[in-house]
Design goal:
The protein is α+β, with helices and mostly antiparallel strands. It contains 9 helices and 31 strands. The protein folds into 3 domains: 2-145, Copper amine oxidase-like, N-terminal domain (Copper Amine Oxidase, Chain A, domain 1, 2-Layer Sandwich), CATH 3.30.457.10; 169-286, Immunoglobulin-like, CATH 2.60.40.3500; 296-474, Aminopeptidase. It has helices at residues 2-9, 61-64, 121-127, 320-334, 354-363, 394-411, 424-427, 444-450, 453-474, and strands spanning 26-27, 32-35, 38-40, 49-51, 54-58, 69-73, 78-83, 86-91, 96-99, 102-105, 111-113, 116-120, 130-135, 140-145, 169-177, 180-185, 192-196, 201-207, 209-211, 223-226, 234-244, 247-255, 261-268, 271-279, 285-286, 296-302, 340-344, 368-375, 386-390, 415-420, 433-440. Helix 4 (320-334) packs across helix 9 (453-474) and helix 6 (394-411) runs antiparallel to helix 9. The chain is elongated.
């Protein structure tokens, strides 16, 4: 019974996409659901409704976060809820339900409301061993377990990095391309990954984690979605703040078929990568080669960072403080391109090692790698100009020629040409890769220009225009 109670702890969350229905119901705005004293988080588009004085909840919510198995039969309008050996069966529009093949009469029949099947809260929760209450004034659903909690596992949990005042790790960006989920996080996080069916989906839970930079547009109770149009076998990727205390972020990847998918994860340079590799008939994972016919993956690498300041300018400017703002401007522009998925090797003042930057790009099977730098020769403050490096591959030379041309046209700095350079991030990456030396921080005039927003904006547009032109020619 405890498993049943624990299952409901995660309930009441996501929705089930079903046809519209015109049933009238009274929505209960800002409804709260409290389970054993803890408030559960509901996405903004999921509603608890009061229908004929019966509190109704979305049934998919009762399943996805409880890890129930829910089956929906469109033809018969039947919802089947399975948890271990217990089976509940309900039909839209019918008051008669079945629990373990025994008939049970509901006060109100399940309804289709706003693309969602809603069922009586009291029926579901009481059949699952919980007591329920409804505070109509405060719009609070109360769920209380009637079981004694099990003994706590004596194994201590790993320490949680103190990444902010609340102590939670932070998610700063989420993307999906090339059958890979990429989550930018402040520190190492070990995901809890679950495979569920009906519909086929992969649930990725990030414990002790909340939203960072993307939290300004995505707060508790709201849901974000990624554009996965054109990506084979993936129908939807959505994410939300699942719990507040302790904080937990949940990402759900819905798929057409999970049977041939092998899931693995790794943490590289501030990025959690969840790889959905297709499995061949003999059972060997097949890593994706190139992109999946959807978006092109572009890795932008702001040079240096953290403990590595890079070169020093004539005004004691640190190179890392130039490369990151420019790279973030490039990122902002690429995020507006519907056919490009951008991944940053760093988004804050941290230092990914050169091997980590290479590994990230290669693991993602990126289409383009661009490393952004600033030059300096303090012994020769009169030296100026833009130069671009590639290593051997003809595709890298082509990318270098195109991006360099756009930079020279946009900035008007001296043309120091495209050059072959035996640099680790160019030599060891497997895709077209370039390293851009935008200008010389050791030259006073050029340093002032490079640190200005106006010149950085010009450089960012030039880099993006060059990347887009290269990708277009490569198709």
């Amino acid at each position: 019974m405890k498993k049943i109670v624990c299952a409901l702890l995660f309930s009441l969350f996501l929705l089930i996409a079903l046809p519209h229905s015109g049933h009238a119901a009274t929505a209960t705005p800002q409804t709260k659901i409290i389970l054993d004293g803890q408030e559960l988080v509901l996405p903004s588009d999921v509603e608890v409704v009061n229908l004929n004085n019966n509190v109704m909840i979305p049934i998919r919510v009762v399943a996805e976060n409880l890890k129930f198995n829910v089956k929906w039969d469109q033809k018969s309008q039947n919802v089947s809820i399975e948890q271990n050996a217990k089976v509940l069966s309900l039909n839209v529009g019918k008051k008669e339900a079945r629990v373990q093949n025994e008939k049970v009469t509901l006060n109100t029949a399940p309804k289709l409301i706003k693309n969602t099947v809603v069922v009586p809260l009291r029926f579901v929760s009481e059949e699952m061993g919980l007591a329920v209450s409804w505070n109509n004034k405060e719009k609070i659903v109360g769920l209380t377990s009637t079981e004694v909690p099990p003994l706590v596992d004596p194994t201590p949990a790993p320490a949680v990095p103190d990444v902010d005042n609340a102590g939670w790790n932070k998610v700063n960006d989420i993307s999906f391309a090339n059958q890979q989920l990429v989550v930018s996080v402040d520190t190492l996080v070990t995901p809890q990954i679950t495979r569920l069916s009906n519909p086929d989906r992969i649930v990725v839970d990030l414990p002790n984690t909340t939203f960072g930079d993307i939290g300004s547009t995505l707060q508790q109770g709201t849901m974000g979605k990624l554009d996965v149009s054109g990506i084979a076998n993936v129908t939807e990727v959505r994410y939300a703040l699942f719990k507040n205390d302790p904080a937990q972020v949940r990402v759900v990847i819905e798929m057409n078929n999970l049977s041939d998918v092998q899931v693995s994860s790794q943490y590289i340079s501030g990025k959690l990568i969840v790889d959905l590799a297709m499995t061949a008939a003999i059972g060997i994972p097949v890593s994706p080669v190139g992109n999946d016919g959807g978006k092109s993956i572009v890795v932008i690498d702001p040079g240096h960072g953290g403990k590595d300041p890079g070169t020093i300018g004539i005004s004691n400017t640190q190179e890392k403080d130039f490369t990151l703002p420019l790279a973030l401007k490039v990122q902002a522009l690429l995020l507006q391109e519907p056919d490009i998925e951008v991944v940053m090797t760093r988004e804050t003042d941290v230092y990914p090692t050169r091997p980590e930057r290479v590994q990230l790009a290669n693991t993602l099977n990126a289409d383009v790698f661009v490393s952004i730098h600033g030059n300096s020769v303090k012994a020769s403050p009169q030296t100026t100009g833009t130069e671009t490096y590639y290593y051997k591959r003809s595709s890298s030379k082509e990318l270098a020629d195109i991006v360099h041309r756009h930079l020279i046209e946009a900035l008007g700095f001296k043309d120091r040409k495209v050059k072959n350079g035996n640099l680790e991030v160019l030599r060891n990456t497997t895709m077209p890769a370039v390293l851009l030396e935008i200008g010389f921080l050791s030259n006073l005039v050029e340093e002032q220009a490079m640190l200005s927003d106006s010149v950085q904006n010009k450089a960012a547009h030039a880099i993006v225009d060059g990347i887009k032109e290269f990708l277009h020619q490569s198709q």
